[in-house]
Amino acid sequence: MDIYLEEYNNAFVLYFGTETTRINAYTLATTLVSFADAVKYANNQINPGYEVEVVVESLADGSFKAQIGALYKGAGNLFSKENAKAIALSVVAAYIYQNTLAPEDNVKVIVNDDQVVIEEGDRRVVVPREVHDAMKELEEKHQFRSNVGRGFRAIAEDPAIDGFGITGRIDDSTPELQIPKERVRAAAEDASETEVSSREIEEIVELQIVRAILERGKRRWEFVWRGVKIAAPVLDERFYDDFAAHKIMIAPGDMLRAKMRIQQEKDLDTGIFLNKRYEVLEIHKHIPKMQQRSVDFGVNQPN
User: Fold this and answer.
1) Angle CA(198)–CA(200)–CA(202) in degrees, nearest 5?
2) pLDDT in tens, 235-265
3) E strand spans, 18-106
4) In Å, how far are 43, 116, 122, 193 from 108, measured between CA atoms?
5) Contact yes or no for 302/74 (Cβ under 8 A)
6) Which of 208, 202, 221, 211 is nearest to 257 (CA)?
7) Which of 75, 83, 228, 255 has its C-alpha lying 20 to 30 A from 268's C-alpha?
8) Pair 107, 118: CB distance under 8 Å
């Protein structure tokens, strides 16, 4: 059987082997968040300036399946395959598979110019070379390994799950890449190195202004982001220069498309990183509330 990981570029299905059609909510949430963090980190390394949103597209029983997909876009532009690579999902799938292979002599790896073929018994997994090369670089990154490791541990610690897998279609009765529980447990142990308790990530976001502080410094503006009120200083000096030159007028309800740094701390009970502090690093566009026009602040953006 031949399996082509390039088919996982846009979406794949996580398969949890259970005797029922239910799954522990903590196991599901931790696994999804952990692998989503790995996808986002991979994309940040592969495609600087582009963001990816990892979404759960559908759930199904038999045993229990969750299909996840990736939506890409640049800073102010829709994602373009001419400018970036939509391979973050495939990279994570390849890493999960290769780190749960049994250390046996019957696994053969063939490296070609355009692809890497992994032969395991009667199964051949074909990995595009750019996916394989990106995965080899990312496996050296502690944060990437830590993200995937959290997902492995959530599965390994759930006694109701007897196996795990990845497949391409939600209606597959068995996964294409089937991983026994003992291999997931071994991978979780391999990833059990000390994890950081805090981290910083950067995202391209759209912020609605609630209260503006039009003075340079670290006083915090108030915004609404994804339906939640947050406070963050704006650190973009060019933005303040343009405001001082009367190139823009700011009012509550206006939108800012910006690069934001998010400082996160790990919750000790769940192992999930939670947002604690925010800083707006660059303003890419100002979008007035009552006007359908935008002002470009000169930040280089992907086309």
Assistant:
1) 160
2) 999 999 998 888 888 889 999 999 999 999 8
3) 50-61, 64-74
4) 28, 10, 11, 28
5) yes
6) 208
7) 228
8) yes
Which 3 state secondary structure label does DSSP give 104? coil
> Domains in the chain and their CATH numbers?
2-190 (no CATH), 198-296 (2.40.50)
- Nearby residues of 302 by Cβ (< 8 Å), 6 or more positions away: 49, 50, 74, 75, 77, 80, 83, 84
Residue 282: helix, strand or coil by DSSP? strand
- pLDDT tens-place string over residues 41-96: 999 899 887 888 888 888 887 678 888 888 877 655 545 555 668 899 999 999 99
Tokens of 278: 């925010």
Is residue 130 exposed (0-12), middle (13-18) or buried (19+ Cβ within 10 Å)?
Answer: middle
Dist. CA 291–CA 216, nearest whole Å: 26
Amino acid at residue number 18: T
CA of residue 168 relative to chain centroid, distance: 18
The token pair that represents 202 in the structure block:
């950067």
Strand, coil or helix: 273: strand
- DSSP one-letter code for 194: P
Q: How far apart are the first and last CA of the chain?
A: 40
> How far, rounded to the nearest angstrom, does the alpha carbon of residue 109 sit from its chain's CA centroid?
28
What token pair was written down for 184?
């997931």
Residue 296's pLDDT band, with cuts at 50, 70 and 90, is: low
Q: At what angle do helices 88-98 and 129-138 cross, to 10 degrees?
A: 70
